[in-house]
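R.M. (postdoc): so does anyone remember the format we settled on? I'll just put the structure tokens first.
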């Protein structure tokens, strides 16, 4: 007796959702495409927003930037909810190990008083800057248009809350978990003259209505100047004088910035290349916020890095200029 086993292939009627097939053709879509493209609600809105009756609940006119296809602003990291949460869970585990390592060996608590005061003055107040960045990216997520931008913005907003908590943990490592460093850092943020310029610009962003301008000012200009100044130059300054203890707890922040830059640069470069009007508009925003934030960071650079402060800020600004040139904007 012989048994003949046959295999049959069932051809699916379609390979993906209709809206993705219309955009990419009838072929299997990636999870990022399924979770991103053409998800934005466009029709059947139940009411006009009472606080902005001239516009729809979701409205492309809430920014002066114009795009033929807002989904051109895709995230090169291909982050959607699943991939984002898995990536951040792994990074959080690595970060927790770094913090536990520093806590068990009291790497920051055993630093000289001068070094601990410098950390409380220069780094711990940035937890308030990160909270401001959370608010600004929440604005982008709330009023932006197109899931490609808004989902990346809300993930960025959550990241900024995490960074604020991380800076708070650094303060607790410095003061032996008493919380005194956090209170002192808050006083620096609201009272110390050197911090008031940055605090003012963060609050100016709170009342900037164009969500794309907020995105450019916060993630490209402000972060582009501040992160190198504090997490590279100040870190190197401290390592030269007190060893690499601080660097062990700043590694996560620098890695996060390296990753986030990919999304920010792709978004800005694509929007600037869309039209000359977009490019000119964004150039004006960059010029305004770059000038304001350089002036705001100048006293902080001097207060935290002394004679090296002006040079460090100039180096950060030069790096930002080179980055702007790569994005199609004037350096």
């Amino acid at each position: 007796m012989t048994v003949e086993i046959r295999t049959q292939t069932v051809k699916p009627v379609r390979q993906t959702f209709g809206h993705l097939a219309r955009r990419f053709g009838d072929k299997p879509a990636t999870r990022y495409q399924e979770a991103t493209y053409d998800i934005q609600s466009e029709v059947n809105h139940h009411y006009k927003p009472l606080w902005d009756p001239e516009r729809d609940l979701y409205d492309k006119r809430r920014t002066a930037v114009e795009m033929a296809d807002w989904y051109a602003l895709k995230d090169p990291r291909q982050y959607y909810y699943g991939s984002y949460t898995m990536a951040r869970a792994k990074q959080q585990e690595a970060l927790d190990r770094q913090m536990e390592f520093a806590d068990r060996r009291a790497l920051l608590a055993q630093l000289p008083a001068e070094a601990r005061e410098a950390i409380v003055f220069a780094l711990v107040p940035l937890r308030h800057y990160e909270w401001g960045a959370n608010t600004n990216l929440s604005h982008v997520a709330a009023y932006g248009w197109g899931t490609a931008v808004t989902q990346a913005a809300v993930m960025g907003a959550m990241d900024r809350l995490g960074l604020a908590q991380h800076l708070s943990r650094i303060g607790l490592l410095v003061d032996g978990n008493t919380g005194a460093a956090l209170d002192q850092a808050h006083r620096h943020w609201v009272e110390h003259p050197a911090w008031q310029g940055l605090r003012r610009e963060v609050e100016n962003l709170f009342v900037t209505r164009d969500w794309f301008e907020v995105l450019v000012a916060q993630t490209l200009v402000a972060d582009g100047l501040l992160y190198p100044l504090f997490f590279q130059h100040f870190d190197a300054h401290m390592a030269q004088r007190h060893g690499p203890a601080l660097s062990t707890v700043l590694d996560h922040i620098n890695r996060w910035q390296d990753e986030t830059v990919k999304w920010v640069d792709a978004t800005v470069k694509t929007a600037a290349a869309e039209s000359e009007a977009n490019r000119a508009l964004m150039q004006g925003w960059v010029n305004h916020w770059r000038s304001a934030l350089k002036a705001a960071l100048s006293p902080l650079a001097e207060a935290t890095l002394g004679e090296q402060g002006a040079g460090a800020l100039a180096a950060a600004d030069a790096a930002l200029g080179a980055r702007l040139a790569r994005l199609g904007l004037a350096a």
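R.M.: ...and that's the designed sequence above, right after the tokens. Also worth knowing: The radius of gyration is 23 Å. Residues 77-327 form a domain with the Ribonucleotide Reductase, subunit A fold (CATH 1.10.620.20).
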